[in-house]
Each structure stands twice: as structure tokens, then as C-alpha cells.
């Protein structure tokens, strides 16, 4: 309620309200100043409201007093139950824990006002889960209530927790949650074998390292607490076997460590111990965490292949041993009760195995070919033994045969030496150190000896000094050498070995005389250097030779160009061979001009030219000579010319244009007489020159001349 001192109760004062919730949550009576709540309030939603009130004049609307602020606080009631915001809970505790072992702490939240009354005071209790667990009413801490809870008996527990406000009094509100508690495993149980004796049957042919059986000890624990380690207790038969743990099944896998043999021993007995790997010291007083069982293994008899007496055979034989010589033997036996016979044969893999043979019954190995240590020093092959009663059962063994060396090769100089001696060498100077090599397999301590051959011992040029360590030195025996007198010396050196029989060889060394300086450094060993001037280097000699080659090339090119130019003067154009006549006003050379035509052939038509090429044109392709028919005796000049004209017309090798040809043919009647009609046997009147008009324009003038003479003949009757 609001009231102003200026309010006289006559209705002249008006009250106004503003602030949080004014008009929505709270309202005021303008006349009396009473404040009322117009809806339900929730402290958990808004615990207090801040409002402002003022008294104003009804008529003037002016404030009568300054505005005042006041707070309306919502008083709490117990209308909210406790809630477990993190529930449901999951917890674990080790098994066999003592009473009061901490498990988990739960917490419930009450939205009521903790400062007003007991509305927010919560008390915890267990509704389900007793007598295994207990809870602190104030803190909510859950602890174990029973000792030695065993996981192997019961592993999971579900506990129902209640939280109640009002201090747990009657009428208080309550909330619940669930706590799932799991007992974790501890190693509180030792492994135990379900039975004291395990029987196994193993074939004697089982391979070493193979698994021959499994045994298992039971441990009710879980995880690493159930991990078991198996060990064979030392004793009878245990040294042939081994045991390991299968990590997935925790079984003991028994493996074979050594081969079994039924004929040797038929049964084995040993003990196996199973123990935990991870022990808990709190439970040592319970007893030893291990157990022992007996394993009996019976070996089964199997049909086995023959067994060789050795895992590998090594033999030796001298090279060039005669074919058929026995060099050794292999032995295999059938150890089964039946004791079958054994047959031997070589495992053929390549051609090398054919060098030896083996006796199928006795197993003796003999040579089948001549052996050469230098070609193959060692042979490695396999021999197979099979049982006669069961040929499928076989065994194999490796045989190594070393070929021993026989001294059959003489020693030789190991490498070819390029030995040189200076012209200014002094006597006793070592110019080369030589070593020897032998193709034979030299035994330890073998030595080579060096000496001059007898034919060279009396020559005063060089000598051989044996150092007796398989090397020798070539020494000079004279003062100075001359290349002009002798450039090369050939020194025969005899080398012997120390094996039996002694082998020796004569090796010829070539010694070249060279020009050296005063310090013995070689300057030149070439023969040409003797005749060159002193001081002329190799580079200068190469330069001189290069200049000579260049000059020769220039001369050859010049001669070739001259020849080409001379050929080109025959014709001004290589493309058109008709341009061979350059000056049309030049007179011919007559019978002396034999460059274009063979005048002899024209003078004597009977001469047949073999493969005669025309010389008035440039030949392009090879043409066969025309076969000219022989001119008959007393042939007229007209027939001769017509014949030549026809030959040129049908000749495929003749050019298809006009070409000048001269036929100085006077006939067969006279060799050097004139063609004129003077002194002719016939008279002029008997001559008929009309045929000259048929010869064409070239004979027009001659035809006119004889025609005029005929027209002026006084004796002729027209």
C-alpha cells in the first residue's frame, strides 16, 4: 500500500506505478494506493521486482512528491523437487574391496530458495541396492557395505538413489536416479587344470617346430589377470618338447623341439606348470597362483625314408683322375622295424652332375669323365636314397667334391710389361720388376724362380736378378744404349715353379731404348724421333703434316676444275646440244678437221665401225652402232646419199633436228681422180642433168648451170 502525507482523503491525489511488471504483474489503485498482484508469481522464474511510485494532483497532473522506488520480493514455497542432473550414473569398484570403499558421489539440485526454510535442504537415501552399498545422507557418497564381493559370483549391481527436500521430513518432495555399479576384476583366482593327466599321440614323422597338442588351465579371472604362462618342468622327456601360450585362447601349445624316433623311444612323460603372469600381492596369502599337470606323449610308428649317416659329404679327387675311379661313398639306412634295402641315385639337375656316377646298391661315387680343376674346381650335387619297399619315401643329402690341383701349367709373367731403357743408362740399373702367375692352384709356400735363358746368358746387354720373393728385377749390364744401333732388345726369361713335377716357361720381354734426360725421365721412344731435329716438338710435326695435306687438296681441286672447264668449252649450253655451231660464217676445216667426223669412214664405206659414237652431238645415253649395209660396187652418188639419208631418218639415236653431215665419197672407180666430166668416156651430150633439179634448193645453182649449157647446144634439135 502506498500513501502520501498530502492525501487528505478527499480524492485530490492520484497514485501511479511504473517499473518491472507494472500493469502486467502488478496494478495499483489510483485513489487508495493499494498494490495488487494480477497473476501467480514464481520465485524460481523471477525472485524480485523493482517498481517506482508517484503521487500527482488529479486536476493539475503535477507531482505532489518526488518519485520513489521500492522492491517487491517473492517469498519461496517448496514447489520444486530435487533433481539429479547427471543421472543415471555408471560406476565401478574392484572386487574383494573392504567395507566402506568409495564408489561414487551423486548430487541432486533443488530449485527452491536455500536461504528460506528447508525447501532446498536435500537428504540422500538408498531405495534399492542394500545391503551391498550405502550412501551418505548429506554428501551423497556411495560406498561398499559388504566385504569380499566376488566378481566371479556377481559382476553387475543396480542401485536406486533417492534425494528428498525438507530435510527428509514428511511432506517433502523427492527425486530418484539409478547408479549402475560394476565389480572390476582382480587376480584373486589361480589357474587350475581341469584334469591332472593329458594324453597325446604324435607321429614320429612330425617336423621340428610343429604343434603336436594343446592343454588348457582354467582361470575364472578376466583380462590380464587371466593370462597364463605355461612351462615344462625339467625332468624325463621334457627336453624334446617346448610349450607356448596362445594369446587368444590362453591354451598351452606343445611344440616339438627335437625329432622323434619310434625305434629309439616310444613314449615320453613330463609335467607342465601353469601360472599367472600378473600377481596381486594382496592375495598371496590365498596360496600359490599356479597349478601342475602331467603330459604323456605316445610316439606313433610311421614308415620313414632312409637316413644318411652324415648331413653332408665332402670328398676330394685329383684332376685328370682316370674315368671310373672310386672317390668315396655315401651310406643311408632304413631305421624302421622292417629294415628295407636302400637304393642310391644322383639328383640330376644339370650337365655337371654327369661327371660322376654312383653305385645304386653300394653308394660308391666314381668319376665318369676327366676332371679339370682350372675349369671347375668344385662340384656340388645331391644324392637321393629311397627304400626298395616304398620308393616314394626318399631322403636327400648334398655331396661336395673338391678337385685337387696337379701341377700341369708352367708359371708365366703375370702381366705384359712395357719395358724401356734409357740411352744413358748405367750398369746395374733396375729397369723393370716382374712377377709371375700360375694357372695351377698354387699351394702355400710355393715359389717361382727367375733366370736368363742359356742363349741370352752370354750377351752383355741385360741380366735377371731373382729376389727370391716371387719377383725379379731386369738390370742393365752395359754403359749406355743407342737407338740408332738397336731400338728393341728381346730378353728371354725362364720362370720355374716349385711344385712337382717342376714346370717352367720361357717368356720373352721386349725392351725399347728411349731418349731420357739427365734425371732418367723418358722424353721419347719413337723411331721417328731419331731423325727429327732437336727441339722439334710433336705439335710442330702435326702442323707441318696438316699444311701438306691442305696443299694437296687445293691442287686436286684445281685440276678437277680445269678438267671440268675444258669439257664445258665443247658446247656453250649443256642443255641444248644443237648449239655446237657457234659461228655460221666460219669456213670448215676441210679434210683436216677430224674433230666432228671420221673422214676415213666417209672415204671408205666398207669400214664398219664397232660401237662408234657420233661426235657431232653430246652423247647422253649409250647407243648401239648402226649397222650399215655394205655399199654395192659402182653405186651412184645419188643412191649413196639417199641411202645415208634413209639411215639417219630411221636411226633412233639420231637427233630429231637438222645436222650437217659431209660425205666425201667419190665412188669405187677412182681413189683420187676428179669428178668432173673432163676426160670422161661419155660425151657431154650423153649427160642428163635434169635430176639435179630433184635434189632440192641446194643443187639449184648447179642444175641451172647445166641446164643453160644444154639450152645453148647447137647440135641439139628442139
UniProtKB/TrEMBL annotation:
Keyword terms: Calcium, Cell adhesion, Cell membrane, Cleavage on pair of basic residues, Glycoprotein, Membrane, Metal-binding, Phosphoprotein, Repeat, Signal, Transmembrane, Transmembrane helix
Gene coding for it: Cdh12
GO MF annotation list: beta-catenin binding; cadherin binding; calcium ion binding
Annotated function: Cadherins are calcium-dependent cell adhesion proteins. They preferentially interact with themselves in a homophilic manner in connecting cells; cadherins may thus contribute to the sorting of heterogeneous cell types.
Any one Gene Ontology BP term: cell morphogenesis
Protein's name according to its UniProt entry: Cadherin-12
InterPro entries (UniProt xref): Cadherin, Cadherin-like_dom, Cadherin-like_sf, Cadherin_CS, Cadherin_Y-type_LIR, Catenin-bd_sf
Localisation per UniProt entry: Cell membrane
Residue stretches spanning the membrane: 530-561
Cadherin domain residues: 4-84, 85-193, 194-308, 309-413, 413-531
Amino acid at each position: 500500500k502506498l500513501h502520501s502525507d498530502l492525501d487528505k482523503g478527499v480524492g485530490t491525489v492520484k497514485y501511479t506505478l511504473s517499473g518491472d511488471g507494472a500493469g502486467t504483474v502488478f496494478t495499483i489503485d489510483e485513489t487508495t494506493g493499494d498494490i495488487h498482484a494480477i497473476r501467480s508469481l514464481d520465485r524460481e522464474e523471477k525472485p524480485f521486482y523493482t517498481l517506482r511510485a508517484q503521487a500527482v494532483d488529479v486536476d493539475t497532473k503535477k507531482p505532489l512528491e518526488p518519485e520513489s522506488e521500492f522492491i517487491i520480493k517473492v517469498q519461496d514455497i517448496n514447489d520444486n523437487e530435487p533433481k539429479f542432473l547427471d543421472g543415471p550414473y555408471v560406476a565401478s569398484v574392484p572386487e574383494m574391496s573392504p567395507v566402506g570403499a568409495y564408489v561414487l558421489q551423486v548430487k541432486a539440485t533443488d530449485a527452491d530458495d536455500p536461504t528460506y526454510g528447508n525447501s532446498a535442504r536435500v537428504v540422500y537415501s538408498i531405495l534399492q541396492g542394500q545391503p551391498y552399498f550405502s550412501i551418505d545422507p548429506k554428501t551423497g557418497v556411495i560406498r561398499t557395505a559388504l566385504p569380499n564381493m566376488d566378481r566371479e559370483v556377481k559382476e553387475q549391481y543396480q542401485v536406486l538413489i533417492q534425494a528428498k527436500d525438507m530435510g527428509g521430513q514428511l511432506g517433502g518432495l523427492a527425486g530418484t536416479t539409478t547408479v549402475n555399479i560394476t565389480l572390476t576384476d582382480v587376480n584373486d583366482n589361480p589357474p587350475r587344470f581341469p584334469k591332472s593327466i593329458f594324453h597325446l599321440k604324435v607321429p614320429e614323422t612330425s617336423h621340428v617346430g610343429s604343434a603336436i597338442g594343446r592343454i588348457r588351465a582354467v582361470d575364472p579371472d578376466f583380462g590380464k589377470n587371466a593370462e597364463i604362462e605355461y612351462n615344462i618342468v625339467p625332468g624325463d622327456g621334457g627336453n624334446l618338447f617346448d610349450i607356448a601360450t596362445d594369446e587368444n585362447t590362453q591354451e598351452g601349445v606343445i611344440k616339438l623341439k627335437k625329432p622323434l624316433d619310434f625305434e629309439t623311444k616310444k613314449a615320453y612323460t613330463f609335467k607342465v606348470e601353469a601360472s599367472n603372469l600378473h600377481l596381486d600381492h594382496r592375495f598371496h596369502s590365498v596360496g600359490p597362483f599356479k597349478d601342475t599337470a602331467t603330459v604323456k606323449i605316445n610316439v606313433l610308428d610311421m614308415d620313414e625314408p632312409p637316413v644318411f649317416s652324415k648331413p653332408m659329404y665332402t670328398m676330394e679327387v685329383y684332376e685328370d683322375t682316370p674315368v671310373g675311379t672310386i672317390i668315396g661313398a655315401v651310406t643311408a639306412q632304413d631305421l624302421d622295424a622292417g629294415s628295407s634295402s636302400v637304393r642310391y641315385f644322383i639328383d640330376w639337375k644339370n650337365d655337371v652332375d654327369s661327371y660322376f656316377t654312383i653305385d645304386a646298391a653300394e653308394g660308391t661315387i666314381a668319376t665318369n669323365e676327366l676332371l679339370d680343376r682350372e675349369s671347375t674346381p668344385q662340384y656340388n650335387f645331391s644324392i637321393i636314397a629311397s627304400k626298395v619297399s616304398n620308393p616314394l619315401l626318399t631322403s636327400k643329402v648334398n655331396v661336395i667334391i673338391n678337385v685337387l690341383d696337379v701341377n700341369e701349367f708352367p708359371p708365366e709373367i703375370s702381366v705384359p710389361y712395357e719395358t724401356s731403357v734409357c740411352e744413358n743408362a748405367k750398369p746395374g740399373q733396375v729397369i723393370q720388376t716382374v712377377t709371375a702367375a700360375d694357372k695351377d692352384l698354387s699351394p702355400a709356400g710355393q715359389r717361382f724362380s727367375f733366370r736368363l735363358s742359356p742363349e741370352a746368358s752370354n750377351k752383355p746387354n741385360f741380366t735377371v736378378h731373382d729376389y727370391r720373393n716371387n719377383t725379379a728385377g731386369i738390370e742393365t749390364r752395359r754403359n749406355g744404349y743407342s737407338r740408332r744401333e738397336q731400338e728393341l732388345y728381346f730378353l728371354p726369361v725362364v720362370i720355374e715353379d716349385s711344385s712337382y713335377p717342376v714346370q717352367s716357361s720361357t717368356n720373352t720381354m721386349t725392351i725399347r731404348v728411349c731418349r731420357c734426360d739427365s734425371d732418367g725421365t723418358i722424353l721419347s721412344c719413337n723411331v721417328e724421333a731419331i731423325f727429327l731435329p732437336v727441339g722439334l716438338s710433336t705439335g710442330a710435326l702435326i702442323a707441318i703434316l696438316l699444311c701438306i695435306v691442305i696443299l694437296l687438296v687445293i691442287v686436286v681441286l684445281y685440276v678437277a676444275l680445269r678438267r671440268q672447264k675444258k669439257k664445258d668449252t665443247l658446247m656453250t649450253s649443256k642443255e641444248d646440244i644443237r648449239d655446237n655451231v657457234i659461228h655460221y660464217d666460219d669456213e670448215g676445216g676441210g679434210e683436216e678437221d677430224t674433230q666432228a667426223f671420221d673422214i676415213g669412214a666417209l672415204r671408205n664405206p666398207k669400214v664398219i665401225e664397232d660401237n662408234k659414237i657420233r661426235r657431232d652431238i653430246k652423247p647422253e645415253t649409250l647407243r648401239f652402232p648402226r649397222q650399215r649395209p655394205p655399199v654395192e660396187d659402182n653405186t651412184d652418188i645419188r643412191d649413196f646419199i639417199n641411202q645415208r639419208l634413209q639411215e639417219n631418218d630411221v636411226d633412233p639415236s639420231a637427233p630429231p633436228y637438222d645436222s650437217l653431215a659431209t660425205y666425201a665419197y667419190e665412188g669405187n672407180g677412182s681413189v683420187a681422180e676428179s669428178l668432173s666430166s673432163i676426160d670422161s668416156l661419155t660425151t657431154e651430150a650423153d649427160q642428163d642433168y635434169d635430176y639435179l633439179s630433184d635434189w632440192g634448193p641446194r643443187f639449184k645453182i648447179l642444175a641451172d648451170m647445166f641446164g643453160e649449157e644444154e639450152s645453148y647446144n647447137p647440135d641439139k634439135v628442139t
